[in-house]
DNA sequence: GTATAATGTCAGTCACCACTGACAGTCATA
DNA sequence: TATGACTGTCAGTGGTGACTGACATTATAC
């Protein structure tokens, strides 16, 4: 019965993440979480000591950390359209993997020391990576880029908006999919960044 | 003392919106709300009957409704850069005015019948208005627009992302302001929509 | 077969919280 | 000065929810 201990904690964490992301930390009872995990409430407390600690443990896995950095250093082809597409996809992959954790983080209500800071550091890192990418592309003469930081930021905000929209509004816009959005957004940036001289009609 | 009744309800609603947007519906007690409004808990219940009803009443003001439609029919100059700028500004004006209500809506936890539906209808309306605008601009020969719906959607998502980012991350990106973002985003769309022939380097 | 570790059951504690009733105070108006 | 509309105080009630302790149960390992 030694290996069951980890399995039990895992079940509880999954149930907690599921329920809390739906109904909020204060909207779920430890009883409900235990039931959803097919375990007794007592077991929950034996493993985590408190509801708050259970949440903290659940949120610890919230670290895509190095993944973006590695992606940027290994997967880029220095071909704008291609790269922006794969960056977008990677972004949504990562975000969707942590979908429920992000939902919890947004609903917040809960104050875990340092958590917000840790969370906000990811998009800052992405902004840096993306900015550096644009700068290099500019140096290579492949794009015309006057303000790389703001352009990277704008690109990110579009992705972020689409993700949050999908997260909480689901399929609010009939006939519009995330894939289509990514393609159109990349097209717009490619067109905008590969103009030789600004067109003045 | 007749006019005080409305003033009292107003105070309570304001306090409720402030606190609930911060800590979530289940994270605030009626006691706290009453204190924040400098009124007794009893008065709160005399006015609204229940905590839930207080929230519902607070959320009823959440209707920018016609404002966007009127703006689109009256304030546009049919000059792309100018119009996209003023649309962006109007959007953020409206969103910021209802900042706290939107925060409550996102944290959700609360299930008020029909509320979510009512809320989601606003961005859908904006999408329609913006799409129609692009179509007309295309017909006027002022832009080259292959896929107006997706382009309007992309423009919206960028605004939405920037708003949500500002809402919950505050000043996470030092040196980047909302104003700068709006300008850069508009520039990107203008460049992208006013290319006569796609440049292939 | 017995020790050990993990879980379940059950009854219960304690604090908090939405909400109430009874009574008293305050102020404007007639 | 009396009435009425509004608010405050206070002492409650009933329910819920996080968390505990004592004891029984199961499975595994030696």
From TrEMBL, chains A, B:
<protein>
    <submittedName>
        <fullName>TetR/AcrR family transcriptional regulator</fullName>
    </submittedName>
</protein>
<feature type="DNA-binding region" description="H-T-H motif">
    <location>
        <begin position="29"/>
        <end position="48"/>
    </location>
</feature>
<dbReference type="Pfam" id="PF00440">
    <property type="entry name" value="TetR_N"/>
</dbReference>
<dbReference type="InterPro" id="IPR009057">
    <property type="entry name" value="Homeodomain-like_sf"/>
</dbReference>
<dbReference type="InterPro" id="IPR050624">
    <property type="entry name" value="HTH-type_Tx_Regulator"/>
</dbReference>
<feature type="domain" description="HTH tetR-type">
    <location>
        <begin position="6"/>
        <end position="66"/>
    </location>
</feature>
<dbReference type="InterPro" id="IPR001647">
    <property type="entry name" value="HTH_TetR"/>
</dbReference>
<keyword id="KW-0238">DNA-binding</keyword>
């Amino acid at each position: 019965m030694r290996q069951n201990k980890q399995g039990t904690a895992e079940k509880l964490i999954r149930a907690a993440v599921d329920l809390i992301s739906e109904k909020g930390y204060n909207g779920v009872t430890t009883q409900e979480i235990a039931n959803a995990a097919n375990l007794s409430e007592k077991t929950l407390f034996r493993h985590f000591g408190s509801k708050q600690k259970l949440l903290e443990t659940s949120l610890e896995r919230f670290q895509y950390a190095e993944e973006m950095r590695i992606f940027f250093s290994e997967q880029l082809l220095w071909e704008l359209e291609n790269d922006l597409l794969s960056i977008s996809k990677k972004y949504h992959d990562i975000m969707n993997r942590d979908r429920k954790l992000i939902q919890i983080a947004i609903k917040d209500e809960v104050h875990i020391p340092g958590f917000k800071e840790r969370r906000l550091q990811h998009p800052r890192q992405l902004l840096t990576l993306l900015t550096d990418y644009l700068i290099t592309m500019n140096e290579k003469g492949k794009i015309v880029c006057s303000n790389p930081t703001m352009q990277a930021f704008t690109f990110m905000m579009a992705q972020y908006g689409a993700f949050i929209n999908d997260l909480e509004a689901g399929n609010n816009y009939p006939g519009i999919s995330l894939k289509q959005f990514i393609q159109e957004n990349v097209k717009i940036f490619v067109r905008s960044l590969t103009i030789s001289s600004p067109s003045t009609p």
